[in-house]
């Protein structure tokens, strides 16, 4: 049942974002920022963790999950370092994911040799 919940929740998130892109004039970058901020807000009001436990990867993989990861990192860093944790926590919590995206993106560019559009 975990796979089914992950599939339909992740699909629902993607479908809602697609509807938002089609029906509004919002640019994809703004929608992505909105999703990250929504993940932060849901984490701050403690609604994201129960959602994550129900949906698993369907909630943890999209940009909502990235926002929640940033929130958890900032919250832990504030507890450890006080005010400076606001600036350190997000970087510390998301460093592995961002590094992996950069490394795998670079490797993909070596394999597929992308060209600029003319």
Report a brief summary of the structure.
The protein is mainly α and 118 residues long. Helix content is 83%, strand content 0%.
Please, could you describe this protein's structure?
The chain has 118 residues and is an all-alpha fold. The chain has one domain. It contains six helices and no strands. The longest helix is centred in the C-terminal third of the chain and has 28 residues, at 85-112. The termini are far apart. The model has no long low-confidence stretch (mean pLDDT 89).
Write out key terms for the chains shown.
118 residues
Task: Compile the SSE list and pairings.
Layout: H1 2-23, H2 28-44, H3 48-55, H4 57-60, H5 63-81, H6 85-112
Overall morphology = globular
What is the assembly state of the chains in this entry? single chain
Query: Helix tally?
Result: 6
Q: How confident overall, as mean pLDDT?
A: 89
* Proportion of beta-strand residues: under 5%
Distance between the termini: 48 Å
**Major β-sheet profile:** none
- What share of the residues lie within helices? over 70%
Total number of strands: 0
Structural domain count: 1
Spell out the helices and strands N to C.
HHHHHH
Could you name the ranges where pLDDT drops below 50 across 5 or more consecutive residues?
A: none
User: Which value, in Å, is the CA radius of gyration?
Assistant: 17 Å
Helix and strand content put the structural class at mainly alpha
